[in-house]
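LAME_0G14290g1_1, pasting as requested.
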Amino acid sequence: MEVVLSPLILVQANQLLEAQRLLEDKTRLLPCLLLFGERTSSHIDLQYGLDLPVLESKGAVSYQSDALHKRVELLKSVFPQLKAFGVMFVSEGLNRTCNVKGILDELTKEGPNMSYYFTYNVLTENFELHCYHIEQPRLRIPFRLANNDTLLAAINSSQQSKPKLDDGNEYEKQADFNKKLIPRIDKIISYLESTPVADSILRKVNLLILQLKKAPTADIEQQVTEKEMELQVLNIICNQWETRQVLDRSQP
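Structure tokens follow.
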């Protein structure tokens, strides 16, 4: 059965890698995405990647099951038709020690559809992306990207020369703003997941981050002004939350 990978997942992989850089997260071995999609009569259509919280503790590699289950529930509340079919391991060219087999063995217990895993190296001149079957981890299998043109535009956007048009510069600024805002919201989500909090609050924040990471829609131009205002308000909220955390820590 043919495996088809959405370019959106590679964009998400790059966002996850950048978020870990900004947060200077040293506890995680390498960024991982749990891959969700749909099965048709002819192929597996992988459409979305969900951050898989892989950690290392006392030489053992594991992932946070409780945090993962919460994220999966939230994802399914938005995309109920999607199922987990695989996982993607992301690297920057440095081969860090990781018990991939142990993680795969654990993930296959999560659901009967887990069948594939990808390795994605983002620092090579021509990015390296390979697919394997979990039951035969040394056997590379073919796959297809849903849209090569969209993929190249998304992955290489940061390497392109600066646009001459003002509109292009504004888009670049807004994209950079969103890129910096997403890890800050992720940090708030991690805080909420580790603290007793109403499920309704956690759900709303997670739904927000899912929307921020979505690919642009056809009618995005009609919503640009409104969304920019919402993001500016969200930026203010993040500043207020971070200030409150500093003040709380400074109190005796």
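Note for the archive: The longest strand covers residues 43-51.
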